Amino acid sequence: MGVITDSIRMQYLNNQKLDLEYKIQLITQSRMGLTQAASDLMQVGTDYSPDSPVVKQLNQRQAKLKVLEQKLEQQMIQYQTRLQMVTTELEACRGRLYGNIGKAFSYN
Predict the structure, then answer these.
(1) If we measure between CA atoms, which residue out of 66, 58, 54, 27 comes closest to residue 40?
(2) d(Cα 92, Cα 10) in Å, to the nearest integer?
(3) Could you give the CA distance from residue 87 to residue 94 in angstroms, rounded to a whole number?
(4) CA–CA separation, 65 vs 62, rounded Å?
(5) Above 70 in pLDDT, residue 71?
(6) 93 and 3 in contact (C-beta within 8 Å)?
(7) Is pLDDT of 58 > 90?
(8) Of 69, 73, 63, 27, which Cα lies nearest the Cα of 42?
(9) Average pLDDT over residues 48-76
(10) How many Cβ atoms sit within 10 Å of the Cβ of residue 74?
(11) How confident is the model at residue 69 (pLDDT cuts 50, 70, 90)?
């Protein structure tokens, strides 16, 4: 019975792992886009004088992008932590499964 339970659990953990890896990839892509957008804002701001209201507005937008990037970073850290937990549990489950298979087919 342990073999079936561990097999089902491994499938569930593999799905969780793939889902977390996908979410991390999406966050990474979003952060790259935010970095590019912030860089573009700074390039536009170089055309105006530093005291211009346009530059002040661009700086505010850049600050908002920075806050959003920090939130994405925190979310990515959470996903990476969960991914480590899932990976550890997956390895333990795999070890139990192989142990159960070994016991089931031993002739002693």
Answers:
(1) 58
(2) 10
(3) 10
(4) 5
(5) yes
(6) no
(7) no
(8) 63
(9) 88
(10) 10
(11) very high
Phi, psi values for residue 8, rounded to 5°: -65, -45
pLDDT at 20 over 90: yes
Amino acid identity, residue 17? K
Q: Report pLDDT digits (tens) over 5-17.
A: 888 999 999 999 9
For the chain, give the number of residues: 108
Q: Per the structure block, which two tokens stand in for 8? A: 């089902």
Decide: 27 and 72 in contact? Cβ < 8 Å.
yes
Neighbouring CB atoms inside 10 A of 56's CB total 13
Using one digit for the tens of pLDDT, what is the confidence trace for 74-87?
Answer: 999 999 999 999 99
